[in-house]
Amino acid sequence: MQFHPTMAHSFQTTLLSFLFLFSITQAQPSFRPKALVVPVIKDASTLQYVTTVNQRTPLVSTNLVIHLGGRFLWVDCDKNYVSSTFRPARCRTSQCSLAGSTSCGDCFDGPRPGCNNNTCGVSILNPVINTATGGEVSEDVVSVQSTDGSSAGRVVTVPRFIFSCILTSSMLQNLASGVTGMAGLGRSRIALPSQFASAFSFNRKFAMCLSGSTSSNGVIIFGNDPYRFLPNIIVSDQTLTYTPLLVNPVDDPLVEYFIGVKSIKINSNIVALNTSLLSINSKGKGGTKISTLNPYTVLETSIHKAVTEAFIKESAARNITRVASVAPFGACFSSNNVGSTRVGPAVPYIELVLQSESVVWTITGSNSMVYVNDNVLCLEVVDGGSNPRTSIVIGGHQLEDNLLQFDLATSRLGFSSSLLGRQTRCANFNFTSTA
Ligand SMILES: *[C@@H]1O[C@H](CO)[C@@H](O)[C@H](O)[C@H]1NC(C)=O
Ligand SMILES: *[C@@H]1O[C@H](CO)[C@@H](O)[C@H](O)[C@H]1NC(C)=O
Ligand SMILES: *[C@@H]1O[C@H](CO)[C@@H](O)[C@H](O)[C@H]1NC(C)=O
Ligand SMILES: *[C@@H]1O[C@H](CO)[C@@H](O)[C@H](O)[C@H]1NC(C)=O
After folding, report:
1. 117 within ligand 1 shell (Cβ under 6 A)
2. Atom of ligand 1 lying closest to residue 116 CA
3. Which residue's CA lies nearest to atom 1 of ligand 2?
4. Which ligand 1 atom lies nearest to the CA of residue 109?
5. Tell me: the pLDDT tens digits for 1-38?
6. How many CA atoms lie within 13 A of 183 on its CB side?
7. Is residue 135 within 8 Å of 74, Cβ to Cβ?
8. How far apart are CA 98 and CA 182, in angstroms?
């Protein structure tokens, strides 16, 4: 083969750009972020929480539904996935084992992202439609903003972020419009918290602070505290309450986040419950988990009944009158005798008592109630049926304006209870960049 002059030229250009890139990398040798920050917005129609990261080369802003108990990032590669830095994970590489993949396959319709020979695959799940499909384990550039905990800073890049690339666009069904995948924050080695932590050598922990607003961003901060919210309210490890994160031993893999609720109090009075439903049994049934995909808390039927009845009774003692139910909620009230407080409508507090009597997650009106119209507000819990796998699923609205810190290394959850009580909210993170 003749060495064509244009090839020589392009070789030179490549060499030059390589050297150029090399010198850029050299120019900032030691910037290592202590934490990263991504915005999270609540989607008004699905009530899902959506984050945005930049992926690929050139970078494409990619919207993803947050899946707290998800194993990894997955993206629909079928449409418009164009990237010069995309790499499929070849069979039996460390990427495949990190992803927990044991399968290896060929694809005859490629090569293209999602369809390559000699690549490993993983099964991906859209829990909203409860459907799974296979995806190719892949790598590409992911870039997000760093933070010092106070505001958004310099953009940093993970050059080979492992994700799963799928070619089944129907997997986006029932997800918020404009999203192309899901961002798993679970306990797996390739979920976002673990990959970011290992890319930048910070602790395997993240703080999630969801905003109830569909127009202002909440935040997820990967890495260490402190977390500062305007007007200069600092949430740090010292100001959080901690409870062990539990696993469901029957889950495979162990990615979801459970906590040990021992009892429930309403207006300081203990609610009579079948407490055996509160622990996870040997078949993996029971217990309490945290979910970003359920918009409201879901309670097993007998717990739902007990909690609802106790709440109605304690509300009646405050002259709050019950009115007709508004589906899917069982207990609705006239707003007439409901005052308003910094932490929401003045209704009885619901307390989740954790590992001891003194460790309590307090749910105030801002997290327990929803106004269905100007005159009626409802207790925002729904009946999960009499035989659900998990007895209590704490849903999105109950998490909003609470800062939750998931520490994977020590397996504990730090929680703030409502930030409204500290005169700030999750939408008050200062995204104005210093960089
Ligand atoms: C995979 O290999 C087969 C031959 O074994 C070939 O026909 C096919 O085009 C290849 N597909 C890709 C995506 O490279
Ligand atoms: C309490 O729940 C457990 C687990 O579902 C069940 O086996 C038991 O029968 C329940 N006890 C009562 C008194 O309902
Ligand atoms: C409830 O209403 C009754 C009668 O109007 C009144 O006597 C009582 O003080 C009220 N209780 C509270 C807690 O507001
Ligand atoms: C937000 O952060 C930027 C960058 O650090 C800073 O200049 C600005 O004053 C901050 N905004 C407020 C309201 O504190």
Report:
1. yes
2. 13
3. 274
4. 13
5. 333 433 333 333 333 344 344 434 444 446 899 999 99
6. 27
7. yes
8. 18
Q: Is 111 in the pocket of ligand 1 (CB under 6 A)?
A: yes
Instruction: Output Rg (C-alpha) for the chain, integer angstroms.
Output: 24
In the chain, domain spans: 33-224, 233-428
Q: Is 106 in the pocket of ligand 1 (CB under 6 A)?
A: yes
- Domain at 233-428, CATH from 2.40.70.10, 2.60.40.1080, 3.50.30.50, 2.60.120.200: 2.40.70.10
Taking the CA atoms of 330, 334, 338 and 344 in sequence, report the sign of the dihedral they define: positive
* Number of residues that this document lists for the chain: 435
Q: For the residues of 131-195, what is the DSSP string, one character each?
A: EEEEEEEEEEEEEEEEE-SSBEEEEEEEEEEEEEEE--GGGGTTSPTT--EEEE-SSSTTSHHHH
| Per-residue pLDDT tens over the stretch 368-416 | 999 999 999 999 999 999 999 999 999 999 999 999 999 999 999 999 9
